[in-house]
Amino acid sequence: MNVKSSTSKTFITTLRSTVVASLLVTAGVPTAIAQTGETHMSNKQKVVDLLKSIETNDPTPVSYINPQHYTQHNLAVADGLSGFGAVLQALPANSANVNTVRAFQDGDYVFTHTEYNFFGPKIGFDIFRFENNLIVEHWDNLQETPATNNPSNRSMIDGHVEITDRDKGKENKTLVTGFVTDILLNGEMDKLADYFQGDNYIQHNPAIADGLSGLGTALEALAKQGIQMQYHKVHQVLGEGNFVLVVSEGSFADQPTAFYDLFRVENGKIAEHWDTIETIPPKAHWKNNNGKF
């Protein structure tokens, strides 16, 4: 018997059983899942555990998803809980690795910054929306992990992780929204210095060096190659304390693109930046009709 194959099949069988049990819970039928005491777990921890279950094959976190109402915005995955299960079934046994480095909560939303080996190495941001302590909606943005660090020797995932200034979350979101609107959407480059402490700016984009000077050099290089990066619309702004995530729609090299930008704010200025950039496929290739955003 192939032990790896057997383990994978066992997980999928258990996943299906969990889905059925969850349906029974919503119908008012008492089951073991309803009595596990998981309601005391934070939504942030539920998300971290769900993502880790891709690696561990632990079926329990699947019960944190509402089986009757789960909207999927990853366009490569079919809608609903069955779509999530199909992706897991397609994974080669014991091939996945999941390391969530940052996790944040903003009201009913939890968003994470994760290093994946999932059909190949990737860096991803995931957003989950909760209703009544169950996950009902998911968005993400994935980018292939580069072979080397950026010009300042930083990876796409390293850097600060501590959440501070929880009392300043609202003003930090306002600051970052202003930056994205003024600079990235409207191109008002004369306002750039308003958002930074001089050239002290830590950059994790794989092609850009630290500082405003690094950003300027990268933009010049793109212009010389005739490549444009344009932001057209902001869809979501989420934050906790000193961290703010902005989800935007635009284009890169004339291709429809989703931009996820995570900023760390320090002393009222932007101090650090991570991002993922993902091309939006043509609608004919979508596995659900919910859209990327």
UniProtKB/TrEMBL annotation:
Keyword Transmembrane: no
Sorted UniProt keywords: Signal
Signal peptide stretch: 1-34
SnoaL-like domain boundaries: 179-273
Stored InterPro entries: NTF2-like_dom_sf, SnoaL-like
A Pfam family reported for this protein in Swiss-Prot or TrEMBL: SnoaL_2
Protein name: Nuclear transport factor 2 family protein
Protein species of origin: Neptuniibacter pectenicola
